[in-house]
Amino acid sequence: AQIVFQKDPALGNVGFKAKFSAGETAKWIHSRGLSGAPLDQPQAGEGTDTFDVTEAYVSYLAPLGKGLRFDYGKFVTYNGAEVIEAIDNPNYSRSFLFNYAIPFTHTGLKMSYTFSEAVSASFHIVNGWDNSTDNNAAKTYGLSIGYTPIEAISTTFNFMQGPEQDNNNSNQRFLFDWVGIIKPAKKLTFTLNTDYGREQNAAPTGGAATWNGVAGYVTYDFTDKYSLTVRGEYFDDQNGARTTVNGVAGIPQRLKEVTVTPQIKLAQNLLLRPEYRHDDSNKDAFDAGTKKSQNTIALGVMYTW
Fold first, then answer.
1. Could you tell me if 173 and 159 are in contact, meaning their C-beta atoms sit under 8 angstroms apart?
2. Residues of the chain by 3-state class (helix, strand, coil), percent to 5
3. What's the confidence (pLDDT) of residue 38?
4. From CA 300, how far away is CA 305, in angstroms rounded?
């Protein structure tokens, strides 16, 4: 469940946003240093708090040019093709890239400006990846550039770099994230997302760690009521720094998945998503370490008010 309070700032004025989440997703995205999540907790996904202050920031739209916007506080990441809320994604389950390649949230300062209908950009100075309270004395810097040459094509280039390890200000983590959306017809949408990450002296092996992946989505709207999305994905955790195999980190792993998600709009605010997903690994990562693959059937029901 999620509740959002929001007021967008008018030119020369102040606004705000507060987003509160509860449930299993809240545990997975929970940032360290928030609501009792300890700073020595290895990953945000290992939290146990089912309540999360997902976003809490104030905004100011400075009267400079078209309007220079400042957001200060905690906000969701600008990386990736998918977002935290399942209802705003084309599939019900999340991709490997969303779960392992990129951060979920940032705490700090975001400055954004729209240069034209085709070009926009934002610059970030934040505590890092999923850290409400900084775990070292250095900041992480990010840049996002959006380019929409025509209405049917939009692309976003995202960069982020900074030290993310506890009490270490020198070992750098770098992330490049790219999202492209092509809409060749009114009912058809293609989305492509690719990520490349690298970290110096990364846990648990202590050497350089690299991860990369790509996810592709095809969505077709048969009618206003029925649609279908197919996602295919590959994620290579070359040094085992982002994933685990049966709870053990540091094991290199290559993951693949295919997900088929029909959507039925039962009412204006009520969506039904049955889903089939097939996952593969080159390691025995499923069914308590006995299988290299798994099949999942799910049914998602989402309601907004």
1. no
2. 5, 55, 35
3. 53
4. 17
